[in-house]
Design a protein that fits this description.
Largest sheet: 9 strands, parallel
Oligomer: single chain
Structural class: alpha/beta
Strand content: 5-15%
Helix content: 40-55%
Bound molecules: iron/sulfur cluster
Shape: globular
CATH topology: TIM Barrel
Number of domains: 1
Order of helices and strands: HHHEHEHEHEHHEEHEHEHEH
């Protein structure tokens, strides 16, 4: 069955929800991971697409996303600030560019970036652009079309990031202050302006494998070409602080199924990667074609040089 579905995907046909569920239940997991890796090599080759982020505005968020340490609804220990310092951000982006990172994103907490913050971020983007050839991305919540247009025309933003986070049918279990439809609207606005979209989710929030498949198919239907897969890092003080960790098999199966359902997309290994360092190489070879490197939003991430060494060891070209 695994080989039959692999051939179907390689011939350009789409798997149905039911077929993906069957795949996820297959007994021979090693064959599943290896087939997903073959699909990745066929459509994406050996190059790994690297990006990095700066948390440009941290904390004090009015929303109640249950996984997030930046929500004002929860008592967490994070650094809170209104605007990141320009020099350190520009330096970090330039250093990353020289190491082989292709894209840098500024990320702001909150339901939607306000116009003043956006105005203050423009000079930072311009400085990065003047001093490096790294391409630019933004992640600023439910941004308006007008604000997106400003980012595109004034600083040449090529990508916009807005995670759906989880399946449409599960979203209200983890966030009640905004809806997945508002996120989908944001993705559509970016596409209208010819801005590439990066959108994925977090696994390990209590959702089922069927929810993950629903998310992967929703992203496919939205023609998303960059899909971050984050593994929940349960933060003390958030409602998900005691969430049960996913097993290795569940994580690898999820990555493989995402690859079967989104064969041409960049499946991006993102937050939570350090927790699975002991089987990172296996995860990379289960369908991954991209990674977020360096620090994450509120948690220390990985060292860019060490990541590059690990990716090369797994056979990727930077
Ligand atoms: S994920 Fe974004 S919108 Fe949700 S609480 Fe965190 S910062 Fe706010």
């Amino acid at each position: 069955m695994i080989n039959k579905y692999k051939q179907k995907v390689l011939s350009g046909k789409k798997l149905t929800f039911e077929e993906a569920v069957k795949l996820s239940n297959s007994e021979n997991k090693e064959e599943l991971y290896s087939a997903a890796n073959d699909i990745r090599i066929f459509f994406c080759g050996q190059t790994i697409d690297l990006c990095s982020i700066t948390n440009a505005k941290s904390g004090k968020c009015s929303q109640d996303c249950k996984w997030c340490s930046q929500s004002d609804a929860y008592e967490t220990e994070i650094d809170e600030y209104e605007l990141v310092e320009m020099d350190s951000t520009v330096k970090e982006a330039i250093e990353n560019a020289t190491k082989g990172v292709k894209r840098h994103s500024l990320v702001t907490s909150g339901r939607r970036v306000n116009d003043l913050t956006l105005e203050n971020l423009i000079p930072i983007y311009k400085e990065i652009k003047n001093k490096s050839d790294i391409s630019l991305c933004a992640s600023m919540g439910l941004i308006t079309e007008k604000q997106l247009l400003k980012l595109k025309t004034e600083v040449g933003i090529e990508h916009y990031h807005c995670n759906l986070e989880t399946a449409p049918s599960f979203f209200s279990e983890v966030c009640t202050t905004h809806t997945i439809d508002e996120k989908i609207e944001t993705i559509k606005n970016a596409h209208k302006l010819d801005i590439n979209v990066c959108s994925g989710g977090i696994i390990g929030m209590g959702e089922t494998m069927e929810h993950r498949i629903e998310l992967a198919i929703t992203l496919r239907d939205l023609h998303v070409q960059s899909i971050p897969i984050n593994i929940l890092n349960p933060v003390k003080g958030t409602p998900l602080e005691n969430a049960k960790s996913l097993s290795e098999e569940e994580i690898l199966t999820t990555i493989a199924i995402f690859r079967f359902l989104n064969p041409k997309a960049n499946l991006r290994f993102a937050g939570g990667r350090l927790q699975i360092k002991h089987f990172q190489e296996k995860a990379l070879l289960s369908g991954i074609s991209a990674a977020l490197t360096g620090d994450y939003l509120t948690t220390i991430g990985s060292n860019v040089e060490e990541d590059i060494k690990d990716f090369k060891k797994a056979g990727f070209v930077i």
